[in-house]
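**User:** I keep going back and forth on a fold encoding question. It is easy to fool oneself when nobody else works the same problem. Could you pick a protein and write out its sequence and tokenised fold? Could you put it straight underneath, so I can go through it closely?

**Assistant:**
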Amino acid sequence: MVVIMQISIHIKENYGVPTAYPICDKALLFAALCGTKTLTVAALANIARLGYDVLLEPTPYPAINKAIKKRNTAGEYA
């Protein structure tokens, strides 16, 4: 059995603040563990550090993409 280590989110702007909404069941579970309906940039970075790929729709917010996808040479997420 292959376990897929990825979650899907949608970025939407609420009152000028980019907000990550979970799409898949795993992302919804992470949001529930955080005690929220949405995921913060810090939560997404920690989820990525656990080894999950965070799949998101193209977003005009490069800081969010950078926090999720950037890896340094040691393989750790920044």
Notes: Residues 71-78 have pLDDT under 50 and may be disordered.
